[in-house]
């Protein structure tokens, strides 16, 4: 059967890596985003705004995918707005497709806020029991992930396709200009430390510094999405997805420092806002970019310090169980230091860091 994928959010970390994985497996891939200039030539660009139903319908008029993958979201001022806008994005896509009944499978990528709560109530109150398991009940809170899921479930019932939801931890992978990009943010931070003498201080909480945690390589996530989209086991269920190992930041931080040829600073025993640390470093980054001929001279286009602060500032342990997909046949694994080092190597090869 011809496999035709529509990736909504194809220019993000998840979308880009998924597109590359599907193309390598022989799929025809349509990449939907508002700005499609960064898509590779192997992906058919679809420029559209998912919140503009008229233009979205026009852009999708001739496209009949067998699979649709939702890999994006948009941040609003309140969680109520997040719920309304992000579920509307999903409904709008299904309403705009000329033949939604031709769909075989729909995929939604969310994350650990499913267990930890939305930005307004993130990791507050009684800490959830770890490791996070897919069987855990929804929190009694507004959460745009839940509204996105419900929109997917409703469309699947209406049009008769199967679905999966994938819940990664922090995603580490290559994408430029992404608003949730901890790996690239840490690469920029380490580069600034090496070039200006700024101490390479871990910006997160004591719980994150000392406790066990995990992350998700974007390639691991893409592999699981592809497996679930084609496997009978991946039908109408949700899957956690992480690399498969665990680590402590008090170990990995020195490993990252060594890669950049710097020393890790002593941990001060409390969180330090990376957003505040980088707030006045735009001119320093511009000078570094000029010195080494880097492709991006504007710091804020590479670093998303607010998101890194949110992830590393969590006051609770974050360990994710992915036994469910393993028992059903998914055997993917990534070694976490390699997730970071492979990203750093590519950023260097593409001239985003020196």
Automatic annotation (TrEMBL):
Residues 65-354 form the PRISE-like Rossmann-fold domain. It comes from the Bacteria. The lineage of its organism: Bacteria, Pseudomonadati, Pseudomonadota, Alphaproteobacteria, Acetobacterales. This is NAD-dependent epimerase/dehydratase family protein.
């Amino acid at each position: 059967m011809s496999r035709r994928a529509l990736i909504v959010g194809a220019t993000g970390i998840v979308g880009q890596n998924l597109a590359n994985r599907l193309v390598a497996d022989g799929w025809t891939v349509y990449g939907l985003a508002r700005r499609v200039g960064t898509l590779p030539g192997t992906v058919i660009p679809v420029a559209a705004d998912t919140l503009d139903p008229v233009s979205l319908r026009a852009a999708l008029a001739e496209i009949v995918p067998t699979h649709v993958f939702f890999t994006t979201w948009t941040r609003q001022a309140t969680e109520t707005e997040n719920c309304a806008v992000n579920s509307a994005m999903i409904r709008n896509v299904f309403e705009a497709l000329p033949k939604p009944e031709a769909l075989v499978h729909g995929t939604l990528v969310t994350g650990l806020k499913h267990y930890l709560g939305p930005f307004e109530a993130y990791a507050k109150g009684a800490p959830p029991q770890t490791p996070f398991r897919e069987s855990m009940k929804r929190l009694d809170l507004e959460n745009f992930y839940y509204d996105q899921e419900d929109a997917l479930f409703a469309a699947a019932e209406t049009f008769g396709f199967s679905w999966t939801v994938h819940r990664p931890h922090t995603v580490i992978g290559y994408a430029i200009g992404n608003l949730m990009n901890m790996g690239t943010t840490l690469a920029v931070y380490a580069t600034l430390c090496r070039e200006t003498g700024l101490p390479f201080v871990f910006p997160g909480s004591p719980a994150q510094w000392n406790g066990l945690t995990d992350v998700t390589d974007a390639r691991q996530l893409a592999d699981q999405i592809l497996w679930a989209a084609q496997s009978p086991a991946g039908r109408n269920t949700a899957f956690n997805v992480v690399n498969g190992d665990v680590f402590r930041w008090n170990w990995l931080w020195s490993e990252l420092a060594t890669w950049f040829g710097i020393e890790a600073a002593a941990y001060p025993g409390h969180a330090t806002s990376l957003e505040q640390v980088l707030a006045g470093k735009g001119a320093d980054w511009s000078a570094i970019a000029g010195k080494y001929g880097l492709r991006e001279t504007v710091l804020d286009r590479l670093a998303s310090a607010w998101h890194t602060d949110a992830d590393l500032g969590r006051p609770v342990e974050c360990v994710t169980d992915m036994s469910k997909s393993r028992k059903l046949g998914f055997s993917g694994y990534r070694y976490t230091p390699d997730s970071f080092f492979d990203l750093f190597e590519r950023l260097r090869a593409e001239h985003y860091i020196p």
